[in-house]
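Aim 2, interim progress: modelling of the S-adenosylmethionine-bound target.
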Amino acid sequence: MRVDQAFDEMARDYDERIRRYVPHYERLVQHAADLPATVVKRVVDLGSGTGAVISSLLSQSDELYITAVDASSDMVELLERRFADHHIDYHRSWFQDLDLATRSYDLATACMSIHHLDTQEKADIYAKLYDALAPGGRLQLSDLMIDKTDRGHASFLELWQQTVMQQGGSPQDWREIMEHYDAYDRPDDLSTHETLLHAAGFSRVEVTFQRGYWISLRAHKD
Ligand SMILES: C[S@@+](CC[C@H](N)C(=O)[O-])C[C@H]1O[C@@H](n2cnc3c(N)ncnc32)[C@H](O)[C@@H]1O
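Predicted structure of the complex, ligand included:
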């Protein structure tokens, strides 16, 4: 099964499951969607899912032009229903195929979606987003940032499992998380993200939130 099909299957009960599965989920969304004090009008959200980041953005400003990108047809249909009263531009597209106009966005956001790309694909999307942002624009990214070959990876998994159980998850939930993680998740560590973002042209990369390997970054384009 492809990753878009996996999310098609998950769309209906995604909101309830993600809060049990991803530690600090609400904070990760909040940091990805944090609107800067500067004027922001045009936003592109990568891997919108059921629209947590979009919803947070719209609660902060009703003057945003949002482009939502997701490969899952079911997620895009759900977004269209959820935000029927808002003008949002939907792209049912792979990030890898995405064509964004140069200097056309003030803010790019991505919450828990970039880890589905391999390292080269991350480098490519960061370069694409750098080009798509206007000068002064930002990329705000929240994700799991650990390499699966990291020495700390086994203890990270143990801690994650404990958190899932504390958040009301079951052994069956944990099995499903691990099946998904093995099949579709390709996280890279923080320093790899920082290196790729600088290589794409971003001048400054700040960590705005960190609990272990659950991290939010803000990358600036001069
Ligand atoms: C874990 S969900 C995150 C959704 C939302 N941003 C949130 O924070 O709840 C990841 C989303 O990214 C989408 N996705 C994953 N890989 C993708 C890719 N390569 N191109 C486009 N969309 C992708 C999936 O369909 C899914 O809706």
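Residues 119-132 form the longest helix (14 residues). Residues 3-220 form a domain with the Rossmann fold fold (CATH 3.40.50.150).
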